[in-house]
Design goal:
By secondary structure, this protein is of the alpha/beta class. The chain has 2 domains: 162 residues, NAD(P)-binding Rossmann-like Domain (Rossmann fold), CATH 3.40.50; 163 residues, Dihydrodipicolinate Reductase, domain 2. Strand 4, helix 3 and strand 5 form a beta-alpha-beta unit. The relative contact order is 0.15.
Length: 346
């Protein structure tokens, strides 16, 4: 059994990790910690967890005590708040899967520009593996530090990567239009996340300034000489879970003839990617509560364009489910272990 610890267990991604891992056949959760006051049980913060685990959720005081119990440590803390702790866990020889943005960007200067703080462990950026299993599975198998991707980049990169990798599209003018449920903002009090602000409303925000934009550009750029240009417009919509990303690309001449075959071949060894039948568009409801990414492809030959739509659950494939998928690969388990659950519908 793989023994795991969750640091930051009382956030949405933390409790989603608990939900998934409690039903994982090869895992035992040995430690739950948070930066706030200790709880005798996680159900004090999340009543739906009543009678699911007897573990307390303790204040994180001594990382060494956590590391003594665990083989794998999930870091589910906010950006910039867990760097020292992650470094300690790595020195103690543990596999760390970080759900924050602290190790996703390879360039410390870019991190500083977008997150407005100096990265105190820039040497770890070279060590970290970007945890998108469909692209970096072989690297994840050997990794000690896995940077779990952001939710928006997960949907956008999975939608676009097959075309860009096969040089089928013009990379100078890619458009990503994404719509996310309110859980993506986390559990902390935020005026924009209040029911009366979100309900019956669709609100664009951080257009071309969202922190996930450099992550998309980094992972979609194949070579330095052909850096992609992405216009990114995220929107908050009145649902709890889900991200729907509609991406627009212009194709190279005579490059769109076999686009469906391109996607099927690219993702032939990716169990959580579902390429939908021609003419079928993804919906967030169809991946709700699951680790699937559904992709629909809509070529427009007359306009030399392709619209690619992806749908994910932002808390599962966009966060905690993908983190478990990364753990499975890094620990030599079946990639789908503990994740073979059908989406919830209706």
């Amino acid at each position: 059994m793989i023994k795991v610890a969750i640091v930051g267990a009382t956030g949405y991604t933390g409790v989603e990790l608990i939900r998934i891992l409690l039903n994982h056949p090869d895992v035992e959760i040995v430690s739950l910690t948070r930066k706030g006051e200790s709880l005798s049980n996680i159900s004090e913060a999340f009543p739906h967890m009543y009678n699911q685990t007897a573990l307390p959720c303790n204040t994180l005081k001594n990382p060494e005590q956590v590391a003594e119990k665990a083989d794998v440590i999930f870091m589910a803390l906010p950006h910039c708040s867990g760097l020292d702790i992650t470094n300690q866990f790595l020195k103690l020889g543990k596999i760390v899967i970080d759900l924050s943005a602290d190790f996703r960007l390879k360039d410390a200067d870019i991190y500083e520009k977008w997150y407005k703080t100096k990265h105190v462990y820039p040497e770890l950026l070279k060590e970290a593996v970007y945890g998108l299993p469909e692209i970096y599975k072989s690297d994840i198998k050997k990794a000690k530090l896995i940077a779990n991707p952001g939710c928006y980049p997960t949907g956008a990169i999975l939608a676009l990567k097959p075309l860009i990798a096969n040089k089928m599209v013009k990379t100078g003018s890619i458009i990503v239009d994404s719509k996310s449920g309110a859980s993506g903002a986390g559990r902390s009090l935020n005026q924009k996340s209040l029911f009366s602000e979100v309900n019956e409303n669709i609100a664009p925000y951080n257009i071309n300034t969202h922190r996930h934009l450099p992550e998309m550009i980094q992972e979609l750029t194949v070579t330095e000489s052909s850096a992609v240009q992405v216009a990114f417009a995220p929107h908050l919509i009145p649902v709890t879970r889900g991200i729907l990303s509609t991406t627009y690309v212009s194709v190279q001449d005579n490059k769109s003839a076999n686009v469906f075959d391109t996607y099927k071949d690219f993702y032939k060894e990716s169990p959580f990617i579902r390429i939908l039948p021609e003419g079928t568009a993804p919906q967030t409801k169809h991946v709700y509560g699951s680790n699937y990414c559904d992709i629909g492809i809509f070529p427009n030959k007359e306009a030399h364009q392709i619209i690619i739509i992806s749908a994910i659950d932002n808390l599962v494939k966009g966060a905690s489910g993908q983190a478990v998928q990364n753990m499975n690969i890094a620990c030599g388990l079946e990639e789908t272990a503990g994740l073979n659950f059908t989406p919830v519908f209706p």
